Amino acid sequence: MDAVAGTEPVAAGLPVRRVLLTGATGRVGARFLPRLKQLGAETRLMVWSPGPGVRRSATMIVGDLADAGACRAAVEGADAVVHIAAAFQGLRPDQSEDVNFQATRQLATAARDAGVRRFVQLSSSLVYADGAGAAAEDTPVRESAAASFPAAKLGAERALSAVRGLESSVLRLAFTYGEGDPHLAEAIGWARRGGTGRMHLVHHADVRQAILCVLSAPELPRRVYNVADDRPVGPAELLAAAPGFAVRGQVEEGAVTETEPGAQPFGRVLTAEAIRQELGFAPGFPSIAAAAEKGAL
């Protein structure tokens, strides 16, 4: 799945061998799953319904995260959980926050009770309030969100923080792109229609690297890490980096679309030094221009 060989460290001796992954049919999860398998991890999937790219198997649990029994079955024997799934399509923001709070609380509680060693929750920079400037991990998040996707991530984060006794970490991702992800086409659409400010990006290869950094860390010195590349870009820079990337206009599971007020990524910049200094994260694609030069869009 890697677009360019050598952009991700080989995590030899990954200390967790049995990993439960939620959200394997979404944009981030579908690109992370092959990396787990490449590293030899015994991977179990929990999905609401198998997507076209995911085949049923003995290691797949089809069930609702709000179902405590399904969560207990999913985490049984797992060393780690990577929780990417979020429910937001067709939900109001208040419904989305509540649904994801309940689902994540069930999963995290089941993981703690089963003795899971590490729980990684993928979140989004969209949880930070508009106009927050360069948001660090201790920048206040929104009280509520105007769009269902950031509301879903807020709900999941709040649920995880309420579950004590579980070694866990939250990765707040900048705008993800690369390896054909239609997110980039959506961002270019915003840029062409007059997006203002800068946006921070992170390539899927570096999202995978960040997850592996957390899974491999001997200890987690903090619960929240921002994950972003080295160079936020404005609309003109974004268009220059990917001039031929057509706006597809398609919506996939896991998409943050321009039809969601408050979900647009322009004007959001992250301070992402903590994960570099504490866990050794170093973007293989420090900018979208670097990714374009390597043919990794």
TrEMBL record:
Organism: Amycolatopsis rubida
Domain of life: Bacteria
Residue spans crossing the bilayer: none
Ranges where the NAD-dependent epimerase/dehydratase domain occurs: 19-228
Name of the protein this chain belongs to: NAD(P)-dependent oxidoreductase
